[in-house]
Amino acid sequence: LVNMQNRRVLVTGAGSGIGAAVARQLARLGARVACLDRDGAAVTALAETLQADAIAIAADVSDGAVVARALAEADEKLGGIDGVVNSAGIVSVKPVTELSLDAWRAVIDVNLTGTFIVSQAAIPYLRRATNPAIVNISSAQALSPIAGTSAYSASKGGVLSLTRALAAELGPQIRVNSICPGLIDTPMNESLKTKADDGPPVPLDRYALRRWGDPDEVAATIVFLLSSAASYMTGASLAVDGGRTYH
Ligand code: NAD
Protein backbone atom coordinates (compact mmCIF):
# COMPACT_ATOMS: atom_id res chain seq x y z
CA LEU A 1 0.00 0.00 0.00
CA VAL A 2 2.78 2.43 0.88
CA ASN A 3 4.61 2.94 -2.39
CA MET A 4 7.39 5.53 -2.32
CA GLN A 5 9.22 4.32 -5.41
CA ASN A 6 10.81 7.30 -7.19
CA ARG A 7 9.03 9.82 -4.93
CA ARG A 8 11.22 12.88 -4.29
CA VAL A 9 11.16 14.04 -0.68
CA LEU A 10 12.93 16.81 1.23
CA VAL A 11 13.44 16.04 4.93
CA THR A 12 14.56 18.79 7.30
CA GLY A 13 16.35 17.87 10.51
CA ALA A 14 17.55 14.74 8.69
CA GLY A 15 20.90 14.84 10.51
CA SER A 16 19.50 13.14 13.60
CA GLY A 17 16.66 11.32 15.32
CA ILE A 18 13.25 11.22 13.65
CA GLY A 19 14.35 13.04 10.47
CA ALA A 20 17.22 10.58 9.93
CA ALA A 21 14.87 7.63 10.47
CA VAL A 22 12.45 9.08 7.88
CA ALA A 23 15.28 9.55 5.35
CA ARG A 24 16.43 5.94 5.86
CA GLN A 25 12.92 4.48 5.50
CA LEU A 26 12.22 6.57 2.40
CA ALA A 27 15.48 5.48 0.76
CA ARG A 28 14.72 1.82 1.57
CA LEU A 29 11.33 2.24 -0.14
CA GLY A 30 12.96 3.59 -3.30
CA ALA A 31 12.41 7.33 -2.80
CA ARG A 32 14.99 10.00 -3.66
CA VAL A 33 15.74 12.02 -0.57
CA ALA A 34 17.15 15.48 0.05
CA CYS A 35 18.54 15.37 3.60
CA LEU A 36 18.60 18.93 4.98
CA ASP A 37 20.07 19.96 8.32
CA ARG A 38 22.02 22.85 9.77
CA ASP A 39 24.54 20.17 10.76
CA GLY A 40 26.04 19.68 7.30
CA ALA A 41 28.48 16.95 8.40
CA ALA A 42 25.64 14.83 9.81
CA VAL A 43 23.56 14.91 6.61
CA THR A 44 26.61 14.33 4.42
CA ALA A 45 27.44 11.21 6.44
CA LEU A 46 23.82 10.02 6.28
CA ALA A 47 23.44 10.61 2.53
CA GLU A 48 26.57 8.53 1.92
CA THR A 49 25.00 5.55 3.69
CA LEU A 50 21.81 5.84 1.63
CA GLN A 51 21.46 5.05 -2.03
CA ALA A 52 23.02 7.21 -4.78
CA ASP A 53 19.82 9.24 -5.16
CA ALA A 54 20.15 10.83 -1.71
CA ILE A 55 21.67 14.30 -1.43
CA ALA A 56 22.78 16.36 1.57
CA ILE A 57 21.99 20.05 2.00
CA ALA A 58 23.43 22.17 4.83
CA ALA A 59 20.86 24.84 5.67
CA ASP A 60 19.20 26.61 8.58
CA VAL A 61 15.40 26.38 8.27
CA SER A 62 14.94 29.74 9.99
CA ASP A 63 16.78 31.60 7.19
CA GLY A 64 14.42 32.35 4.29
CA ALA A 65 17.09 33.09 1.67
CA VAL A 66 19.08 29.97 2.55
CA VAL A 67 15.92 27.82 2.41
CA ALA A 68 14.93 29.23 -0.99
CA ARG A 69 18.33 28.17 -2.37
CA ALA A 70 18.07 24.77 -0.68
CA LEU A 71 14.65 24.05 -2.23
CA ALA A 72 15.92 25.06 -5.69
CA GLU A 73 18.90 22.72 -5.24
CA ALA A 74 16.69 19.82 -4.12
CA ASP A 75 14.33 20.39 -7.06
CA GLU A 76 17.21 20.42 -9.53
CA LYS A 77 19.08 17.43 -8.14
CA LEU A 78 16.04 15.22 -7.42
CA GLY A 79 14.18 16.26 -10.57
CA GLY A 80 11.23 17.70 -8.60
CA ILE A 81 9.77 17.61 -5.09
CA ASP A 82 6.73 15.47 -4.18
CA GLY A 83 6.95 15.66 -0.41
CA VAL A 84 8.34 17.71 2.47
CA VAL A 85 8.89 16.60 6.07
CA ASN A 86 9.52 19.40 8.57
CA SER A 87 11.43 17.62 11.32
CA ALA A 88 14.07 20.25 12.22
CA GLY A 89 13.48 21.32 15.80
CA ILE A 90 15.04 22.38 19.08
CA VAL A 91 13.85 22.17 22.66
CA SER A 92 14.21 24.42 25.69
CA VAL A 93 13.22 23.33 29.17
CA LYS A 94 13.04 26.20 31.67
CA PRO A 95 10.50 27.56 34.11
CA VAL A 96 8.67 30.44 32.44
CA THR A 97 10.00 32.87 35.06
CA GLU A 98 13.57 32.06 33.94
CA LEU A 99 12.96 31.88 30.21
CA SER A 100 14.75 34.70 28.38
CA LEU A 101 13.16 36.42 25.42
CA ASP A 102 16.10 35.27 23.29
CA ALA A 103 15.52 31.63 24.27
CA TRP A 104 11.78 31.97 23.56
CA ARG A 105 12.48 33.51 20.15
CA ALA A 106 15.06 30.86 19.23
CA VAL A 107 12.57 28.03 19.79
CA ILE A 108 9.71 29.77 17.95
CA ASP A 109 12.11 30.72 15.14
CA VAL A 110 13.23 27.16 14.37
CA ASN A 111 10.15 25.08 15.25
CA LEU A 112 7.31 27.32 14.04
CA THR A 113 8.81 29.94 11.72
CA GLY A 114 11.15 27.34 10.18
CA THR A 115 8.17 25.10 9.38
CA PHE A 116 6.43 28.09 7.78
CA ILE A 117 9.51 29.12 5.77
CA VAL A 118 10.19 25.64 4.36
CA SER A 119 6.51 24.91 3.62
CA GLN A 120 5.98 28.25 1.88
CA ALA A 121 9.15 27.87 -0.20
CA ALA A 122 8.11 24.34 -1.22
CA ILE A 123 4.64 25.27 -2.54
CA PRO A 124 5.61 26.14 -6.15
CA TYR A 125 7.56 22.86 -6.47
CA LEU A 126 4.86 20.73 -4.81
CA ARG A 127 2.20 22.22 -7.08
CA ARG A 128 3.95 20.61 -10.04
CA ALA A 129 3.89 17.13 -8.43
CA THR A 130 1.29 14.35 -8.28
CA ASN A 131 -0.29 13.76 -4.84
CA PRO A 132 2.15 16.14 -3.09
CA ALA A 133 2.23 16.20 0.69
CA ILE A 134 3.74 18.09 3.62
CA VAL A 135 4.14 16.41 7.02
CA ASN A 136 4.87 18.63 10.01
CA ILE A 137 6.14 17.42 13.36
CA SER A 138 4.15 18.85 16.23
CA SER A 139 4.29 17.13 19.64
CA ALA A 140 2.23 15.63 22.43
CA GLN A 141 3.41 18.79 24.24
CA ALA A 142 1.12 20.83 21.97
CA LEU A 143 -1.93 18.96 23.31
CA SER A 144 -0.92 18.27 26.89
CA PRO A 145 2.14 20.32 27.92
CA ILE A 146 4.25 19.54 30.96
CA ALA A 147 5.72 22.26 33.18
CA GLY A 148 8.83 24.03 31.92
CA THR A 149 8.05 23.74 28.23
CA SER A 150 6.20 26.99 27.48
CA ALA A 151 8.26 28.00 24.42
CA TYR A 152 8.43 24.49 23.02
CA SER A 153 4.76 23.71 23.64
CA ALA A 154 3.65 27.04 22.16
CA SER A 155 5.82 26.44 19.08
CA LYS A 156 4.31 22.98 18.61
CA GLY A 157 0.76 24.27 19.15
CA GLY A 158 1.56 26.77 16.42
CA VAL A 159 2.73 23.96 14.12
CA LEU A 160 -0.57 22.15 14.69
CA SER A 161 -2.64 25.23 13.76
CA LEU A 162 -0.33 26.17 10.88
CA THR A 163 -0.82 22.64 9.50
CA ARG A 164 -4.62 23.01 9.54
CA ALA A 165 -4.49 26.50 8.03
CA LEU A 166 -2.20 25.31 5.22
CA ALA A 167 -4.41 22.27 4.61
CA ALA A 168 -7.43 24.57 4.23
CA GLU A 169 -5.56 26.90 1.90
CA LEU A 170 -3.58 24.46 -0.22
CA GLY A 171 -6.23 21.77 -0.73
CA PRO A 172 -7.15 20.27 -3.15
CA GLN A 173 -3.59 20.48 -4.55
CA ILE A 174 -1.34 19.77 -1.56
CA ARG A 175 -2.14 17.62 1.50
CA VAL A 176 -0.76 18.94 4.80
CA ASN A 177 -0.82 16.78 7.94
CA SER A 178 0.98 16.70 11.27
CA ILE A 179 1.99 14.15 13.82
CA CYS A 180 2.30 14.52 17.59
CA PRO A 181 5.06 12.24 18.89
CA GLY A 182 5.37 11.40 22.57
CA LEU A 183 8.65 10.50 24.26
CA ILE A 184 10.99 9.37 21.49
CA ASP A 185 14.49 8.01 22.04
CA THR A 186 16.56 10.57 20.11
CA PRO A 187 19.52 12.86 20.92
CA MET A 188 16.97 15.63 21.67
CA ASN A 189 16.06 13.72 24.84
CA GLU A 190 19.61 12.82 25.87
CA SER A 191 19.49 15.07 28.95
CA LEU A 192 16.19 13.52 30.04
CA LYS A 193 17.75 10.06 29.84
CA THR A 194 20.83 11.12 31.81
CA LYS A 195 18.58 12.65 34.46
CA ALA A 196 16.66 9.39 34.65
CA ASP A 197 19.84 7.73 35.97
CA ASP A 198 20.55 10.12 38.82
CA GLY A 199 17.44 12.29 39.10
CA PRO A 200 13.67 11.87 39.05
CA PRO A 201 12.68 9.20 36.53
CA VAL A 202 10.92 10.04 33.29
CA PRO A 203 7.19 9.54 34.11
CA LEU A 204 6.64 6.51 31.91
CA ASP A 205 3.42 5.72 33.83
CA ARG A 206 1.86 8.60 31.88
CA TYR A 207 2.30 6.48 28.73
CA ALA A 208 -0.13 3.58 28.22
CA LEU A 209 2.64 1.58 26.51
CA ARG A 210 5.04 2.35 29.46
CA ARG A 211 8.11 2.80 27.23
CA TRP A 212 10.06 5.21 25.07
CA GLY A 213 9.18 5.32 21.38
CA ASP A 214 11.70 4.45 18.69
CA PRO A 215 12.35 7.02 15.90
CA ASP A 216 11.43 4.32 13.36
CA GLU A 217 7.95 4.00 14.92
CA VAL A 218 7.40 7.71 14.26
CA ALA A 219 8.99 7.61 10.81
CA ALA A 220 6.58 4.87 9.69
CA THR A 221 3.60 7.17 10.33
CA ILE A 222 5.29 10.04 8.52
CA VAL A 223 6.00 7.85 5.48
CA PHE A 224 2.35 6.71 5.50
CA LEU A 225 1.14 10.36 5.50
CA LEU A 226 3.47 11.16 2.59
CA SER A 227 2.21 8.22 0.57
CA SER A 228 -0.85 7.82 -1.61
CA ALA A 229 -2.20 5.43 1.06
CA ALA A 230 -3.13 8.65 2.91
CA SER A 231 -4.58 10.35 -0.19
CA TYR A 232 -7.85 11.34 1.57
CA MET A 233 -6.11 12.77 4.64
CA THR A 234 -5.33 16.46 5.06
CA GLY A 235 -5.35 18.76 8.08
CA ALA A 236 -5.13 15.68 10.28
CA SER A 237 -2.98 15.28 13.35
CA LEU A 238 -1.94 11.78 14.40
CA ALA A 239 -0.71 11.04 17.92
CA VAL A 240 2.29 8.69 17.89
CA ASP A 241 2.81 8.86 21.61
CA GLY A 242 2.40 5.47 23.25
CA GLY A 243 -0.94 6.59 24.65
CA ARG A 244 0.40 9.73 26.38
CA THR A 245 -2.34 12.17 25.36
CA TYR A 246 -5.36 10.10 26.29
CA HIS A 247 -3.87 8.25 29.26
P1 NAD B 1 17.07 15.64 17.17
O1 NAD B 1 17.70 16.67 18.03
O2 NAD B 1 17.56 14.25 17.22
O3 NAD B 1 17.09 16.12 15.63
C1 NAD B 1 16.75 17.42 15.28
C2 NAD B 1 17.59 17.82 14.07
O4 NAD B 1 17.16 19.13 13.67
C3 NAD B 1 19.09 17.90 14.37
O5 NAD B 1 19.83 17.18 13.41
C4 NAD B 1 19.39 19.40 14.28
O6 NAD B 1 20.69 19.69 13.79
C5 NAD B 1 18.32 19.86 13.31
N1 NAD B 1 18.06 21.28 13.43
C6 NAD B 1 17.85 22.00 14.56
N2 NAD B 1 17.68 23.29 14.27
C7 NAD B 1 17.78 23.41 12.92
C8 NAD B 1 17.70 24.50 12.02
N3 NAD B 1 17.50 25.75 12.46
N4 NAD B 1 17.83 24.26 10.70
C9 NAD B 1 18.07 23.00 10.25
N5 NAD B 1 18.16 21.93 11.05
C10 NAD B 1 18.03 22.13 12.38
O7 NAD B 1 15.53 15.68 17.54
P2 NAD B 1 14.32 14.68 17.16
O8 NAD B 1 13.90 14.08 18.44
O9 NAD B 1 14.63 13.84 16.00
O10 NAD B 1 13.23 15.76 16.77
C11 NAD B 1 12.70 15.87 15.45
C12 NAD B 1 11.39 16.66 15.53
O11 NAD B 1 10.47 15.90 16.31
C13 NAD B 1 11.55 18.01 16.22
O12 NAD B 1 10.72 18.95 15.59
C14 NAD B 1 11.05 17.73 17.62
O13 NAD B 1 10.56 18.90 18.25
C15 NAD B 1 9.95 16.73 17.33
N6 NAD B 1 9.56 15.91 18.47
C16 NAD B 1 10.46 15.12 19.09
C17 NAD B 1 10.04 14.35 20.17
C18 NAD B 1 10.99 13.47 20.94
O14 NAD B 1 10.59 12.93 21.98
N7 NAD B 1 12.22 13.25 20.48
C19 NAD B 1 8.71 14.39 20.59
C20 NAD B 1 7.82 15.20 19.92
C21 NAD B 1 8.25 15.96 18.85
Automatic annotation (TrEMBL):
List keywords of the entry alphabetically.
NAD, Oxidoreductase
Please give the PROSITE patterns that the UniProt record associates with this protein. Answer: ADH_SHORT
Q: Which organism is it from?
A: Antarctobacter heliothermus
Q: What is this protein called?
A: 3-ketoacyl-ACP reductase
Family as reported in the entry's similarity comment: Belongs to the short-chain dehydrogenases/reductases (SDR) family.
Q: Upper lineage ranks?
A: Bacteria, Pseudomonadati, Pseudomonadota, Alphaproteobacteria, Rhodobacterales
Q: Where is the Ketoreductase domain?
A: 7-187
Name the SUPFAM superfamilies on file: NAD(P)-binding Rossmann-fold domains (SSF51735)
PANTHER family xrefs: DEHYDROGENASES, SHORT CHAIN, ESTRADIOL 17-BETA-DEHYDROGENASE 8-RELATED
Key word Metal-binding present: no
**UniProt xrefs under InterPro entries:** KR_dom, NAD(P)-bd_dom_sf, Sc_DH/Rdtase_CS, SDR_fam
The terms under GO molecular function for this entry are: oxidoreductase activity
Against Gene3D superfamilies, the record matches this protein to: NAD(P)-binding Rossmann-like Domain (3.40.50.720)
